[in-house]
Amino acid sequence: MKNRSIALLFFALSVLGVKAQSSAVSLSLDSAKMIALRYNKVLASKGLSVAVANQELWQSIAHGLPQAKATYNYQDAMGAEIVLDMGVPGLPPNIIPIDPTQNIQFQVSQLLFSGSYWVGMKMSRLAKEMQVLAYKQTELDIAKQVSEAYYNILVAQETKQILSENLINLEQLLRNTETMVLVGVAESISADQLAVQVAAMRNTIAKVEQQLELAHNMLRLQLGLGVEYPITLSEQLKDMVDETEIVTLLMEPFNVNQHIGMRQMNTNLALSKKQIQLAQSSFLPTIAGFYNYTYKITTTAFDMQPKNMIGINASMPLFTSFSNYSKVKQAKLKCRSVAYEKDNLKDQLSVQEKQLRFNLKSANESYKIQQKNIDVSKRVFANISIKYEQGVASALDIVNAHNNLLTAESNYITSIMELLQAQTALNNLLGKK
Questions:
Q1: Residues 6+ apart with CB under 8 A from 39
Q2: Chain centre distance of CA 214
Q3: Could you tell me the residue ranges of all domains in the chain?
Q4: Most buried of 77, 97, 134, 343 (most Cβ within 10 A)?
Q5: What is the pTM of this model?
């Protein structure tokens, strides 16, 4: 069964255009999102909630539709008799035995009027709409989480690659320095300083590899895959930054009323208003009609119950010690509270939109600055390296230049990550997956 599941998954991945070579899945960001939206377990659970809401809606509707039921009844008086004494002297009393009876009763009923039924049915529709909106919100959240997990892997890969390249350079410098120490051109302390740098670099690379594996597992979790599924990414970190897309995103308008959160709040407010109507409907009567047919299998000689019966049941509350009135007041107060929450959410979303646009602009500017900074740092390190080999610069100079280069490279990667996160956050606010 496990092998069959793996085969089905890889078939689905091939349908989505995902490359699967040597049992490894190669994913682009878009394909990763598509897979997550199909196989993510949290989203699957939300889908079941929508299905449950559909059934609850039908259950509410069914209460107002014709109902039919059959009832079997058997009674035995255990030998009891009815004695009819006319009180006439010399006339013996009539004794009527109560024979066992059994019958089958068929009943058809129809709700004719109920205020709570009509309001409850509308509330069920709104409850279903809430579940649909919650499902869409979960889709947006999962798409955002997949993007962040994807970016984390790219950042870890890029960091590992940069550190590995720096390690190669440091090891070469260490070998050159050790040679210079042997011929008496350099002091042993210079080799020791570089050796410490090399050891620290190797330790940092090991930590990055652990972070890389954790990032892969987080992406697998979002995709609904087990930790045994090997995945690779088909995109590079530098390819994720698109200046045109950023400019377009910054210019895209934001309609606060179309935001999922606002739509959920509007639906919640509509539900609160229906709660008022539901409380008010408790003052109204409930009317239902019925028809009974009784098929008598066995009966007594003294049977006055008719086979056919039609009737109407009506009930109306007369006095409830102001309980119903209190329910109406509570519903109105809760509705006012939800209205305040809606206004507050609208203000929050407006502020959030401005902040996210500012964050994206700032992150984009920082990214451009760090691009220039890393170029300068590389040239400085190359220049110091040449001077060090010529004996003009000291080991401390080369170590400082190397640390400055690492800082510049770290800041550069951080700026890309912050830019991508800012872009993802604004996309999520605008309802884009």
A1: 9, 12, 223, 224, 225
A2: 21
A3: 2-67+115-284+327-429
A4: 134
A5: 0.81
What is the spatial distance between Cα 15 and Cα 17, in angstroms, rounded to a whole number?
Answer: 5
Decide if 158 contacts 292 (C-beta within 8 A): no
Encode pLDDT of 214-249 as tens digits: 999 999 999 988 777 888 999 988 889 999 999 999
Q: What type of residue is 285?
A: P
Query: b/e map of 365-398 (b: 16 or more CB within 10 Å)?
Result: ebbeebeebbeebeeebeebbeebeeeebbbeeb
CATH topology of domain 2-67+115-284+327-429: Outer membrane efflux proteins (OEP) (1.20.1600)
Inter-CA distances, 150 with 173, 217, 286, Å: 35, 11, 58
pLDDT at 316: 86
Which pLDDT belongs to residue 24?
64
Closest to 123 (Cα-Cα) out of 209, 211, 46, 53: 53
C-alpha angle with apex 30: 222 to 213, nearest 5 degrees?
A: 45
Q: What is the enclosing helix (H) or strand (E) of 141?
A: helix 115-182
Cβ distance 412 to 375 under 8 Å?
A: no
CA distances from 375 to 163, 164, 165, 350, 378 (A): 16, 18, 15, 39, 5
Q: Specify the DSSP element, H or E, that contains 10.
A: helix 2-15
Half-sphere exposure of residue 16: CA atoms within 13 angstroms, side-chain side:
24
Among the residues of 226-322, which ranges form H helices? 243-251, 260-280
Where on the phi/psi map is residue 184: left (φ > 0), alpha (ψ -120 to 50), or beta?
left
| d(C-alpha 319, C-alpha 316), whole Å | 9
d(CA 297, CA 433): 67
Asked if 316 and 286 touch (Cβ cutoff 8 Å), the reply is yes
Query: Tokens 């069920």 correspond to what residue?
Result: 124
Q: Which of 296, 289, 290 is nearest to 105 (CA)?
A: 296
CA distance 401 to 394: 11
219 token code pair? 């992406």
